[in-house]
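Observation: inputs received (chain + guanosine-5'-monophosphate).
Thought: call the complex predictor directly.
Action: predict_structure
Action Input:
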Amino acid sequence: MNAVPGNVERTELLHKGKANNVYATTNPNVLELEASDRISAGNGAKTDVIGGKGEANNLVSMAIFQQLNEKGIPTHYIGPGSNAASKYVWKADQILLEVIFRFKTKGSFTKRYECEDMKPFDGVYIEYTYKSDNAGDPVIPESAIVQLGILTRRELGYIEYITEQVALFLKEFFAKCNGDLIDGKIEFGRLPNGQIAVTDEISPDTCRILDKETGNSLDKDRFRQDMGGVAEAYQEMAKRVAGLTEKKPSTESGGCAYAG
Ligand code: 5GP
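Observation:
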C-alpha cells in the first residue's frame, strides 16, 4: 500500500459534512475527500456558499499535505483526486479531537481567558477540543482524553509532538506566502495499519493567517466576522501557495508516508 493507487475511481457518497464530501472508491482502503464551496461558522449557525472555495482550499491543503509527507510526518494524503477540489486519502478511523495550536493569543483563547489579543506564546501552545457538534466542541483536558479512552498517555505525547512539528512547518510555509500564521486546527486518525496520522484538511478554513504587510485576514475569519471579501481571500491564498509550489524544483517527488 505504499504506492499511489493509479486506477482508483470514486464510487458512492458516504458522508456530506459541513464543508467536505467523502466518497468511497474502488479501493476499500482509499477515500476521495472533496472540498465543497459550502462555508459555515458557529457550529452550523451561519452558512453560505462561496464560489471557488473548494478548489482554492484543496490546492492549499494538497500542497501542505504533500510537503508533510515529504518531511516524513504521517498523513492520510495520497494524491490529487478526480477533480480540482478533491484529493485521495487513506481511510482512517477518526480520533474525536480537534488539536489546536497557537502562536499568538486570539479567537476563543482570548475570549475564554479575557486576555490581551495577539500576545505571542512562548513556543507552540497546544490545546484539545472534543469533536462533537452536540457538545459544541468543548475544550477537553488531557486527563479526560485518557480517561475517556480516546488516546493513551503515550499516544497523546505522540500527537503533541507531531502537532508541534506540523505547526512549525506551517508557520514557515505561510511565511513564504507573506502570511503570519496565528493559530490553527488539525485532526488525526488511525490508518488501517494502526498508525496515527494527520487527516482532514489544512487550509484557510482551519488556520488563522494575517497578511504580513497589511494585517488583513486571509482566512475564514472574514466570513465569521462579516468582514467581506471572503471569496477573494481564499483565491489570494491559493494564488500565493500556487506561486510557492511552482518555485519548487520539479525533480522533488513526494511519497506517501503510510507504510501499510
Ligand atoms: P479558536 O479556538 O480561536 O476559535 O480557533 C483556533 C484555530 O483553530 C483557528 O485557526 C480556527 O480556524 C481553528 N478551528 C478551531 N475549531 C475549528 C473548527 O471546528 N473548524 C474549523 N474549520 N477550524 C477550527
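Thought: report the result.
Final Answer: Residues 141 and 212 are 33 Å apart (CA to CA). The pocket of guanosine-5'-monophosphate is lined by residues 98, 100, 106-109, 137, 183-185, 205-208, 220 (CB under 6 Å).
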